[in-house]
Amino acid sequence: xxxxxxxxxxxxxxxxGYGPWEQVAHNLTEGLVKLGHDVTLFAAGGxxxxxxxxxxxxxxxxxxxxxxxxxxxxxxxxxxxLEGPPDARAMEQSHIATCMExxxxxxxxxxxxxxxxxxxxxxxLIPCPLVSTLHxxxxxxxxxxxxxxxxxxxxxxxxxxxxxxxxELNYVATVHNGIRIEDFEFEPEKDDYLxxxxxxxxxxxxxxxxxxxxxxxxxxxxxxxxxxxxEEYFNAKVKPHIDGRQIEYLGLLSQRDLAPIYxxxxxxxxxxxWCEPFxxxxxxxxxxxxxxxxxxxxxxxxxxxxxxxGFVVDSIDGAVDAVAKLDRITPEDCxxxxxxxxxxxxxxxxxxxxxQALVGG
Length: 361
Prior knowledge:
Blueprint: E1 2-6, H1 20-34, E2 38-44, E3 52-57, H2 66-69, E4 74-76, E5 81-83, H3 88-104, E6 110-113, E7 130-133, H4 144-149, E8 154-157, E9 170-174, E10 194-197, H5 206-216, E11 220-223, H6 231-237, E12 247-249, H7 255-264, E13 267-270, H8 280-287, E14 292-295, H9 300-303, E15 310-313, H10 316-323, H11 331-341, H12 344-359
Parallel strand pairs: 1-2, 1-6, 2-3, 6-7, 7-8, 8-9, 10-11, 10-13, 11-12, 13-14, 14-15
Antiparallel strand pairs: 4-5
């Protein structure tokens, strides 16, 4: 098949640090190429791919040169123009239009969008199907009117739980995110520390992870992004406990830098309080042979095999009790769960079936 992959442009593909949507789009693209499909990837400048690559912007939005990104807005008397930083919205519209113009010419059998709601409005202007992976975008109620206006289009959920966010959409399949298993070295022998990895936001549970570490006397390593809107939360709920000994903050780490920390952790704490549509951390940890302790929200009960690759709990007390049971988990079972259910190859095959159904075989 001739597949157009419309990736996000916040980060280049593959991302070197944060960028979960970009990572999934990259893994899927590479997996489809391996299956023999003719894939054209529309992505930001600086991306690398084995597919036919179309760089629609000179840089990714988050890696744009600081001099341009931080330019002050103001009138330039010499040119008569309002000068300022690049317009992210305009860049994304141009990105989408580049793909859609080529789709309109009949180049592709299917277009696959990873772009929230922003590509939906072009769907009825092209001759081939547009399928969208939500990546949790329906969590934002403000965009529901746009989704509902295009509810008849084919959507793919990352988990069955994700459908709770907007159940009236036309879900044609659930395809779990896939990771490159070989990027995560298996380790059967564990240290005794716990790990939190992810955005340091209230709904992700870093403060709850600190509580569990304090109550169990375990060392806790924390890795992740502190977004500007959550700095006050971090400063109040997490930072006071960071002492560099029992509680240590490692900053935002790339997947490559995080992999060896997964590998030796006794367990990963995933104590979220929202309907997270998936959770790459949960699959990356299991690929390393490391179990999860997670709350009963979102996709986590679908990802974890209870008592075999981790524990699903309903409270801090439950998480504390689960820490004492981590040594009952066999690392080989964690690795096998990731290999069978969450590899890039299994994801690519899942989407291949979606495309085939949409284009008629």
